[in-house]
Amino acid sequence: MKTLYKIGIHLFRGSREIFEDIRLLGINTAQLFSGNPRSYRPSSEKLPIFPFTPIFIHAPYVVNLASPDERICNLSIKKVIEELKLAERLGWEGVVIHPGSSKKMGKEVAEENFLNSLEKIFDNNGIKTKLIMENSAGEGDGWGSTIENLYDVYKEFPDIYFCLDTCHLFAAGYNLKNERKCKAFFYSFLEKIPLQKLSLLHINDSHFPLGSRRDQHAHIGKGAIGIRGFQNLFKIEELHKIPLILETPKDSPMADLYNINMIKKLLEETF
């Protein structure tokens, strides 16, 4: 496998020592929550010092920059700005955010709210850390699941970066299992949004079928995307330097090792 690849996982700080996981898995990049993923409150817990870069913070699940509730929107904006400042202080790469949801008020409302939230974030942070928007699976109002949605954001805020999640792409109807369609999606994305704006890929299989609009991750090769889909992905030369972060299920002590080894094996077989 080529050493240029950056491969890692979303690390949960729990019962096992985080550096034991790093050693066991042989990873050289990572993503983590800075604190409780279901709270807006900052954490007092000391964050690890990693022996590699890049490191990404994933914003908490409670953040919803597209919310029609002004209180939730303001709390979300404040939290994202805090996370960006934390990432800059630690020298980490950036903060991953979800598109959010309008809570059944429609895709147009969600997009408008999200763009308004971004304006406040960019006006107030004054820092260089990357704000990274992740594509959605299309659940609920469907906002954030298409190339067009992402391009709309990029046109308004060219300082933003992007993360593409394979499970979300597949759930939104982009057929990664078909080599031609897989390549067509990524080249269409790169026609609209420059490669340097793609900060990372979330590598996840999908528990549900193509176009399901349901976001449930599966182990690599054991979901609806399957081995073929990831082989197609890794054949796209333009993506070779993009960090790969796995968010696959942690339903057994060795689950992460299985998934990391599967990705390494597929990369070795592809080249």
Give a written overview of the molecule.
There is one protein chain. This protein has one domain: Alpha-Beta Barrel (TIM Barrel). Helix 2 (about 70-90) packs across helix 3 and helix 7 packs across helix 8 (about 255-270). The protein has helices at about 20-25, 70-90, 105-125, 145-155, 165-170, 180-190, 225-235, 255-270; strands at about 5-10, 30, 55-60, 95, 130-135, 160-165, 200-205, 205, 215-220, 245. Strands 1-2-3-4-5-6-7-10 form an eight-stranded parallel beta barrel. The mean pLDDT is about 95. By secondary structure, it is an alpha/beta fold.
Radius of gyration: 18 Å
* CATH fold-level topology: TIM Barrel
Named at the architecture level, the CATH assignment is: Alpha-Beta Barrel
Distance between the termini: 7 Å
**Helix- and strand-based class?**
alpha/beta
**Unreliable residue stretches:** none
Please report the total strand number as a whole number: 10
Overall number of domains: 1
Keyword list:
eight-stranded parallel barrel; 10 strands; 8 helices; alpha/beta; globular; TIM Barrel; 271 residues; two-stranded antiparallel sheet; single chain
Provide a short characterization of the protein structure:
With 271 residues, this protein is of the alpha/beta class.
